[in-house]
Amino acid sequence: MQKLYHTDRLTMAALDPCAAPLVLAYLLRNREDFAKYEPAKEDSFYTIASQEKVLDAESLLLERGQGVRYYIFLNSDPDTIVGNVSFAHIEGPVCIIGYRMDSGYRRLGIGYEAVSFLLSELLGPEGPDMVEADIYPDNDISVRFAEKLGFRYAGTSLFMGRELKRYTVYNPGKRHLSLSGA
């Protein structure tokens, strides 16, 4: 995957450590909201130094072709992160997606536009066979969002002792074996 993508109204970019102040501002604006559906984070996570380390690690994953996190910007406001989409294990048969939106920019179609665009870039003949989204059962908004994107319920998984709902979407660019005999 590339480091930078554009649509008519969005820019989706993998950032380097010099963008740590922008990422920190985004995380601080949404700290309370994101905490509902993510593991607890230490106060030290919410520092420029910590975000520089995170962005450095993310850059290394992209360089190795193992994963990528795209930060979403409105083209009309290129200095404010409004969401992010991440893909882990992009080199394997099953890729894991994560996404979150700034609470002030939800229900505007931004997340759907970004994720559907990035999925179309990922899911081709050379892409993974399947993409999985693991969602907390009480996160109804995320469940509806995944379903709107074409993901289907596939069971449960455990993360840090908490049960998650697993949703999957198959790569239409690859042939899939039917086990039903049909």
Largest sheet: 8 strands, mixed
How does the helix and strand content classify structurally?
A: alpha+beta
Rg (CA only)? 16 Å
What value does the average pLDDT take?
92
Q: Percent helix among the residues?
A: 25-40%
Spatial order of the strands forming the largest sheet: 1-2-3-4-5-6-8-7
Structure description:
The protein is α+β, with helices and mostly antiparallel strands and 182 residues long. It has a single domain (4-131), classed as Aminopeptidase (3-Layer(aba) Sandwich), CATH 3.40.630. The chain has helices at residues 20-29, 31-35, 48-64, 110-122, 140-148; strands at 4-6, 10-13, 67-74, 77-88, 94-101, 130-135, 152-159, 162-170. The chain has an 8-stranded mixed β-sheet, sandwiched between helices. Helix 1 (20-29) crosses helix 3. The longest helix is centred in the N-terminal third of the chain and has 17 residues, at 48-64. It is globular, with a radius of gyration of 16 Å. The model has no long low-confidence stretch (mean pLDDT 92).
Notable traits:
alpha+beta, 182 residues, Aminopeptidase, eight-stranded mixed β-sheet, single chain, 5 helices
Short description:
The chain has helices spanning 20-29, 31-35, 48-64, 110-122, 140-148, and strands at 4-6, 10-13, 67-74, 77-88, 94-101, 130-135, 152-159, 162-170. With 182 residues, it is an alpha+beta fold. An eight-stranded mixed β-sheet has the order 1-2-3-4-5-6-8-7, with helices on both faces.
